[in-house]
Write a structure and sequence with these properties.
- 4 copies of one chain form a homotetramer.
- By secondary structure, chain A is α+β, with helices and mostly antiparallel strands.
- Chain A folds into 2 domains: about 230 residues, Glutamine Phosphoribosylpyrophosphate, subunit 1, domain 1, CATH 3.60.20; about 170 residues, Rossmann fold (3-Layer(aba) Sandwich).
- Helix content of chain A is about 35%, strand content about 25%.
- Chain A has 18 helices and 23 strands.
- In chain A, the strands form 6 sheets. The first copy, chain A, has a 7-stranded antiparallel sheet with strand order 3-2-4-1-10-9-11. Chain A has a 6-stranded antiparallel sheet with strand order 5-6-7-8-12-13.
- The N terminus and C terminus of chain A are likely disordered.
- At the A-D interface, strand 3 and helix 6 of A face strand 3 and helix 6 of D.
Chain lengths: ~475, ~475, ~475, ~475
């Protein structure tokens, strides 16, 4: 049996839910920059661009911590990134993280390879150990480097790019939406056979682009062509592109993407995110009967859900919680006092909307419950007669090994609790309601979702094994250095 | 007659529309920090706090460029600001500005005075010249230093605080909402006799606070007590506070505050800003008849206006323009191409809301028209069949000498033009509609507004004189260093 | 009797031994910058320049931490400091210091005054208390602000500049070499009636300059005209300058200036520093008889002393200790291990000069003895057969209240010890020798020196009182915040 | 025939004369840091350390611009660099350089390799082209990456470390002193078969170290064991070390090392640098007859030379030029005015030493002559009756392709000129004297020097070819981006 330490390593970097971009075309760095801004919602911790110039045959990197518009403050900041090939990456913010920004790179073979990745590798530790045996070493703890190493190893074994990616897909357990460019002028983009994380491509006026979300293409002015299918690879160069299905696959889009991560205007695997949310709100408004005077979202991810809820429940929609657009990243909250201060800085209440009213407040999900508790408190303080909480996501009862930063059973407020218990012990509203998985299927008009965290049943072998070990350890891993 | 150069000086720093805070109580720096975040909408260019500690008898300053949460990144960043007295300031962003952050200060008399100000002084040049004759010199170009110098001069003449402020009110032409603390443990707050810029006060649990907006009090957890009347002074110390009317006065709240600057949940001179906007939207929706499928705001200042418009026009309200929350401050735009890029980075379109639809888009105001032009372009690109533009503010036909950054006739898109001409030449929508001044009066249920920029008739002598000079100079001032 | 806490305050900021510059002429900022580089030896902790421009009538400040060439890295960094008047300051490095850079300033009277100071005020606490009574407050803990406040207070009492300075000289106990400019285009420079700290002036091609050391004038290309006499003021404007003796005075140049602080090529009160050191070395070489193979300095302050010693002793002079020019400021040393590391990083040994040799090593002074101990250790490690230590300064037996950072009896290695004891307990060389006060008088060809720290007899009332209190407190003050 | 563009590329990065360090042992980062400080004279532009930890199996990098003590300001700054293996590098400052700091690295094979290098590769362009054919790409323009790529390529061909290095030595034309560590716990150090650049090794208390200069070992407290012979490799791990001669070789130490680059206390290929300089000074003092009152060095590289000259000429040695230790790196000089300002900031004159005296001033070398011209001017200004200039280096008549930043004939002041012409046209002293090559051989007691730049005859094929092309192009290359 494996020791706790090994579990630890094998699940490290769970939190790397991020956004990727790869571009071929004139001003590749500028287009990549724009696309990264357009999917900045996927990660605000750090970012980076590496370009390749076919003339100088050099790679040009620029990485940094913060928003894309903080790292690239003015045109000159990406103007140095010469060339017609670029890979970009935005990284998810996680408290205490020491992780470096992507993309990662190697100088050989293929005259150098640059890679960026969104997802989570469940069998990371095993892969790392094997790669070391094959003389590959690691410069960082970034999981993308393992994907790079694996690709390099298989390439040097097979001497064939598609075979190498196929081998990778057979051996890597987890979610990964990957983009790569190399020093020979090729762009590769591929997606794990479960299709958990999104990956789309598009084109306009000679610029070809792959990105995590269609909002990225839109901001860069690129027309969406489609989703890269699970288990497939797209290869492109200056002449054109081609998609090839490498192994049998089945779509399981992460349901958190539709409810929380993604931009409302993005289209993921054929579903427009905002419309999904509105339909889900309508379903909930029709099902959950509440006598109330006003429905309001916790802005902004829940705006369409609340609007849907208002429509079917016929309770007026109003903006009662005003989000402060200028708060920026606030210092790390170490205790309840600082967490409450954080919520106060982030949200103001429109007193006239709330005072003496029965309020329905709609949010996307509850993981640990610390924010919703203070929002409810603020609403009562502002004079609300009643507060009813609607949560778009069903109750989360299991950790995620495929890209969402939930790493134990014990951190979950819904772990072995009912909605009523959660409300009574933490949220302290007049009522608390969650959606069901069937609501999600109805809103999505499909069942092609990964709902592992809602069912505690995992799609992959490694996921099943890790959840078992966690349960044996009392639902919890040892503290890891990047946890707070 | 005055030369153009003199006009220049007398109107310098027009753009200083800002936010002020002054606090007495425990953790004065922290409370001030929170309040500044709560009125960050009033200025994102720079900020500062100066505290006074009655024990060490020292003043502690910290100023910097950027958001409040950028300058004060973590608790330690204001923890050094010791004492139970604090003055804070947030400054309006202006392209190319070289201006330093407030508050300003002097070391004598009163054992030191710290002052911060929101507004604009029309007769700045004359006041500066007089102060120099009285041996006062200037360390910066901040207009607040002129108010400080004037107060010091009058204090050394009269040996009486209220007399000094009364003299100041008689001699300073323009708008000014001022807060001051001194080394003898007093807080002063006063507002010009026209009451153009807001100034409110409140208290909770032994903390007393003055701020520009009630949203600042709310974020700091302070209960709003009321507005400081025009022409009055509030004086406070650890024992309590007192308000005294110094000269005869008449309220003329800047109408731009209600439509654009202020937080929707703020209450200014008795009017809740968000409700004002919603009522204005309803009035416009009832008056302006458009056949359309959807009404959407340019987020976020126009959300309530658009909701009001939707209500009375019975056209469905939808969020079709999605504002990217993570853009941050983008590099200065020097040409049309960069301006278009700026709009693309800032807004995405929910295609399903817009495609093949007749769209009504609602925005707060049009000054130069450069943003709305590209929003309309984006909407057509996304498939809109028709685009109709509703502007909450009437047509702006004159500059402002009282705190809004409009410094000439020629920069105004509405200067000597009709709405139709503006639409035809610049906006290029299917139709363009503005509100009337009477709509504002109806929505505000009062006429106590400054509408100088809408009528080209100015409330003060200096305003009348400056507008005259501008007209003689062809409606335009020479380029100033901080203009782009 | 006074409490310990009061002693504390009255001696705070003892360590401010610094350098000042004031300039009238074209490119005043550039000339001031050059002069500050030329006396950078007087302080490397922080620096600042404030200029005054008679055209804009504004003051332009720039201050920062580090070397002059770190704060002003390129021409543009002082190019913004417009005007024909400038005051500059370099500040002494002290571990743990929180003190801000000078110059200090006020906005009235005289249309603003900028002041910088080198020295130490013994009766600081009393002066501060009195100034507060006269409505003056303090923005910093910089002692220069007290001189500024005192000058302002006396000016507002007497309405006469020279009378104000005379009053200041009568009331301030300690050392102060002061430069000031004001918003009316005057430069003032004055020196305490004991003449403890240097202050020189010069001119070339229409540029007039006052500085702490003549090396500053030389670097700026200004010809030295002379020293400002003790108790006198120099006043200058664009037309010319004038010196006026204000009160009776007697020269007592700080002997530490000649032995350690000052540049060897500087001329202070008529004595060239390098020649003084060489003569002192000759005297010591003639008096102290040692059988040795080589004489070497601890570079660079002791180079001339060691050369003098070599000449009269007829032992060959060689450079055996090589100072690493690129060490920069090294992190604060908290323990013996880090102190030893500091010495190892700073000095290398030329093995061929030292190996199997009897070595005489010459240093300027021993205060705490921590550096010399490790130098001796390094020499033995490199193979020295014998190590003899010569110290140019006599044994320091008392603290300094006039500008040298020695604040207690207990920190002094020579406190109640003989040279033999010091060598035995700490230095551990074969022998250790100090100069006598009579050697200093002979080398200086004058007795006009302050030797208070060598005699424990103080020149001023406050010095006498403070030394008495220190003795009553066991020779030691309570730890102060800036001590490590 | 080759085009000019190719010459350009093949000689790019000539200026990389630097210092390397590699360490095995506890606290490898700290020891490497200390050693880098001890050879900081070899490069102040940028620096970096990469460590390898056998426990985490990760590489830890930290690089930056500036001095070692600027990039690593406090112990914590290298404390994160875990592991018992480290490679460090300091880089030569070159105006306008865009080059990144070393070391360079690859993640495979050998589980990752880190490499740093001092020297210059003459056939860089050819090697790069070949490596690209073998699928190796470049992330930077650093020449060390070419050495790394070459080693990797040969390793993957031969599967044997020594064979790979032997192949590298056969194919790389130029100078290179290289250190490497890998992820399998080995340290390699090797030196080109001409032995142009130094490379020494040593040990103490279980710490093994390779460095460019013995001064680095001394500062780190490591005992010097010897020089790595030309054409040999040293391989070490935690168990011990071994040296193996790989190809036939002949020592040709760069004579610039002895005269200018190296620390005086360093021992390079058996010669103590300071003693070499002193002997050279004596030889010159005996040969060149000048009637003068004083001999002084341009500090500090020429101090021993001047002391030797004084000894044999019997003219007194005095320190008349005082170097300002606090100037730091001064802004780039773009014209004569700024160059003169630079010299004024850097040097002061002890007037008493120079005034009315006949002065001999000794400097190490003259390449472009811009500094010496202003030093002579300063001496005359200070009253010197006569100024005679002695240059330790013979006249430089050819460029260097092996590590000194001289890249053309035309930049050389001595190109097709006599000493008299140089003095007349540029230096303008009373006389100007250079050493001869025979003086160097006599002072060094050997002829094992590279004197290519003094004879215009080059040691390698590529050097001969490049000098020929330069001559055909009129002695000059096209301007390159990093030239000023």
């Amino acid at each position: 049996m494996r020791c706790k330490k090994c579990v630890l390593e094998s699940t490290e970097r769970l939190q790397d839910s991020c956004g990727v971009v790869a571009t071929i075309g004139k001003n590749a760095a500028e287009k990549t920059f724009m696309a990264m801004v357009g999917e900045q919602n996927r990660g605000q911790d750090s970012c980076g661009i590496i370009t390749f110039d076919t003339e100088t045959k050099l790679f040009y990197p620029k990485k940094g911590y913060g928003l894309v518009t903080e790292v690239f403050k003015k045109p000159g900041d990406y103007a140095d990134l010469k060339g017609e090939y670029a890979v970009g990456h935005v990284r998810y913010p996680t408290v205490g993280s020491t992780g470096e920004p992507q993309p990662v790179e190697t100088n050989h073979p293929m005259q150098g390879i640059v890679l960026a990745h969104n997802g989570n590798i469940a069998n990371l530790a095993q892969l790392k150990a094997e790669l070391r045996k094959h003389e590959f070493g690691f410069k960082t703890e970034i999981d993308a480097e393992v994907l790079l190493g694996k690709f390099v190893q298989e390439l040097m074994r097979t001497y064939h790019d598609f075979e190498a990616i196929t081998s990778l897909m057979n051996d890597v357990d987890g979610s990964y939406s990957v983009v790569m460019i190399n020093g020979k002028g090729k762009l590769y983009a591929f997606r794990d056979p479960l299709g958990i994380k999104p990956l789309v491509y598009g084109e306009k006026n000679g610029t070809f682009m792959v990105a995590s979300e269609s909002s990225a293409l839109q901001t860069a002015g690129i027309n969406l062509l489609g989703d890269i299918p699970p288990g497939a690879v797209l290869v492109a160069d200056k002449e054109g592109y081609n998609i090839k299905q490498l192994i049998e696959a089945q779509l399981n889009t992460c349901v958190f993407e539709h409810i929380y991560f993604a931009n409302p205007q993005s289209v993921i695997d054929g579903i427009e995110v905002g419309s999904f949310r509105k339909r889900l709100g309508k379903i909930l408004g029709a099902r959950i009967k509440i006598e109330a005077d006003v429905v309001m979202p916790v802005p902004f991810s829940s705006n369409p859900t609340a609007q849907g809820f208002a429509k079917s429940s016929e309770i007026p929609y109003k903006e009662g919680l005003i989000k402060n657009q200028y708060v920026g990243r606030i210092f790390i909250k170490k205790n309840d006092e600082e967490r409450e201060m954080g919520v106060r800085l982030k949200y103001n209440i429109a007193k006239s909307v709330v005072d003496k009213k029965r309020v329905v407040v709609v949010d996307d999900s509850i993981v640990r419950g610390t924010t919703m508790k203070y929002i409810v408190k603020l609403l009562y303080e502002a004079g609300a007669k009643e507060v009813h909480v609607i949560i778009a996501m069903p109750m989360i009862i299991g950790p995620c090994f495929y890209g969402v930063n939930i790493t134990s059973y014990t951190e979950l407020v819904a772990h072995q609790k009912t909605a009523e218990q959660i409300n009574h012990e933490i949220i302290q509203a007049d009522s608390l309601h969650f959606s069901d998985i069937s609501d999600l299927y109805e809103a999505g008009r499909t069942k092609d979702f990964c709902v592992s965290c809602l069912t505690d049943e995992y799609l992959t072998k490694e996921g099943q094994r890790l959840s078992q070990i966690l349960k044996e350890n009392g639902g919890k891993m040892e503290r890891r250095p990047w946890d707070e």
